[in-house]
Amino acid sequence: MKSFRGEICVILSTLGFGSMGVLAKGIYESGYGVLATLTFRFYFAGLALLVYLVLAKESFRISKKQGLLLAAIGGFFYSAFSICYFAGLRFTDASIVAFVFALYPVIVTLLNFFFFHETMSGKKILCLVLSVLALYILTRSPGANVNLIGLAISLVGGILYAVYTMLLDHKDLQSLSPVVTTFYIILSTGLVLTLICLARGERLLPISPSQGLSLLSLGLVSTAMAILTYNTGVRILGSTKASLIANFEALVSTILAMVFLGEYLTWIQWIGALLMILVIFLISSLDGKKSLEE
């Protein structure tokens, strides 16, 4: 029964993260900008995590070194890959953006090989080859019609996200709980995005009731709830089993985009998508890790 509860938590997390693209595109259609959307996403998510931490009586105490590190991670990397993810949605389908970001374990493998000289096993090389093939089928096959600007932005975001997940393993952050770490990262990200919005003169207010509801859903459901339920699932199931379930996130995004946005993949693209899911499963089983946030 406890295991089942953990599985439900991770499934809810996957649904939450998977709905991000659909909610964001709906907000864009109402005339709201990328940066303003992200800013409110982190306002609402940060407030929800703050309430959770207070109710759970978790300590907020961090050292000066930890604070500077979290501010740098949130202020640059989290802000940057979030902008890439949400900007990518402006140009291409939600499913494409989701699948590109889902390849971050493959990118981490490449970064570890080039910068830290980690050994590249035969299985990892196979995963790299298959991921390139899957991405090509998904984005360049006949009938795919994928916007190259959106694809390029998503790829840059995927690389930044991979670096971000590597930074979360920093030894100075190991003593902090995942939720506390995420709270401070989201706090610094929200502050940076607010400054960017003010500098660019981007409108934050007023917002209509429908925009407010969508922004609230984006912050609470697709961010705070998704983070907390995934964290709970990891505690119950362990990181390996939880990450295997969470690997279906890109597929969830694809299905929701079909239902709510009318964004369909061709049958050839489905082959690429399923191959990519296989690659993600393989590389995750080799790593046994998944980042808490998206």
From TrEMBL:
TM helices/strands, residue ranges: 34-55, 67-88, 94-116, 125-142, 148-167, 179-201, 213-230, 242-261, 267-286
GO cellular component: membrane
Gene3D superfamilies documented for this protein: 1.10.3730.20
Main location: membrane
Location in the cell: Membrane
Membrane-related topology note: Multi-pass membrane protein
InterPro entries given in the database record: AA-Vitamin_Transporters, EamA_dom, EmrE-like
Keywords: Membrane, Transmembrane, Transmembrane helix
Domain EamA: 5-139, 149-284
Family that this chain belongs to: Belongs to the EamA transporter family.
Name this protein carries in UniProt: Predicted permease, DMT superfamily
Top-level lineage group: Bacteria
